[in-house]
Amino acid sequence: MKTVDAYNFAGKKALVRVDFNVPLDKEFNITDDTRIRATIPTVMKIVNDGGSAILMSHLGRPKGGPEEKYSLKHIIPALNEAFGREVKFADDCIGQSAADLAASLQPGEILLLENLRFYKEEEKGDVAFAEKLAKLGDVWVNDAFGTAHRAHASTAVMGQFFTDRVAGYVMEAELVNAKKVLGEAERPFTAIMGGAKISDKILIIEKLLDTVDNLIIGGGMTYTFTKAQGGQIGKSLLEADKQELALELLKKAEQKGVKIYMPVDNVCADDFSNDANRQVVRTGQIPDGWEGLDIGPETVKLFTEVVLASKTILWNGPMGVFEFENFATGTNAIAEAVVKATEENGAFSLIGGGDSASAVNQAGYGDRVSYVSTGGGALLEYMEGKTLPGVAALD
């Protein structure tokens, strides 16, 4: 796989697939610019070489056509600041306006195309649509690891129209760090799996049982495990049809010699609200009408001890409903433990995108762990051993 370091962009128009799918508030202000900042080295390498960069991305999930709230024009001020120059904007990603602006682009200049998903052909991986995009540039740079698991027109299909296909710095770093955890993990190796559903994490948990020493399970998925073991979970999140699977995963872990750590107490609430009444109860003893929304203080102690004794840490998924301040304690405590293990004990820590990345960044710890992935689903699928179309298209 060729990377940007091995390519001279002088005089070239680089068509760069980036992931600018950033969260916006109601006034279209960016609330987390991590994904934009991540692309700065790749874009600056192109323009500093004497090339020009044509950036293409999706934003949100528009339904079958242009929608004002999903226009990428809203992020132009942030891009101007990030790249230290005025970024041009095409109000379409294909068509005459995009073609004219791309053709007139000079070395050192940057152009952003409008949201790719305003065309349904993007997600369908339409070859003709990919070819239209490809005509705008001379070299294809894929730096959008977060969408590499999708066989979309811009993330994979358009590679066939280029002799020169290059991985950007984000893509390269994601693969290097994922491989470090998968194949070169220093032991003890601890994986922390959180989030709402077992069904989202089955394959990655099964894969990790072959490589980790410890598996910490937190978040909403724990209540399905608890229920399967005969515990009371009140009105907590439950995947009733996954109880048998939960017991099978515990059995497999035991057979493979993997230590499983699950909550011993929970913070539960009488309503799904930050202002709800709260109480701490032992795991399996949540009263009727109450639901578990975070791990309890004894669990925080237990999980922290395991994390601090680890040399490799993979974390994907929060420990509770961290969006609610009163139920973010467990997630924040785990973030602190991962930072301490990294900074004081020399552990390698990989935060696996999605909600975990948001939680770590919100707590201000993003630059104090080894690596924060920009791709939740893509990272999980890569670690499950699946071929990612966006990566395969670069080989």
Automatic annotation (TrEMBL):
Biological process annotations from GO: gluconeogenesis; glycolytic process
Localization terms from the record: Cytoplasm
CDD domains assigned to the protein according to its UniProt record, in alphabetical order: Phosphoglycerate_kinase
GO molecular function, one term: ATP binding
SUPFAM superfamilies per UniProt: Phosphoglycerate kinase (SSF53748)
Catalyzed reactions per annotation: (2R)-3-phosphoglycerate + ATP = (2R)-3-phospho-glyceroyl phosphate + ADP
Entry's EC annotation: 2.7.2.3
Database matches in InterPro entries: Phosphoglycerate_kinase (IPR001576), Phosphoglycerate_kinase_N (IPR015824), Phosphoglycerate_kinase_sf (IPR036043)
Residue positions binding substrate: 19-21, 35, 58-61, 117, 150
Keywords recorded for this protein, A-Z: ATP-binding, Cytoplasm, Glycolysis, Kinase, Nucleotide-binding, Transferase
Pathway(s) per entry: Carbohydrate degradation; glycolysis; pyruvate from D-glyceraldehyde 3-phosphate: step 2/5
Record text on subunit structure and interactions: Monomer.
Name of the protein: Phosphoglycerate kinase
Gene: pgk
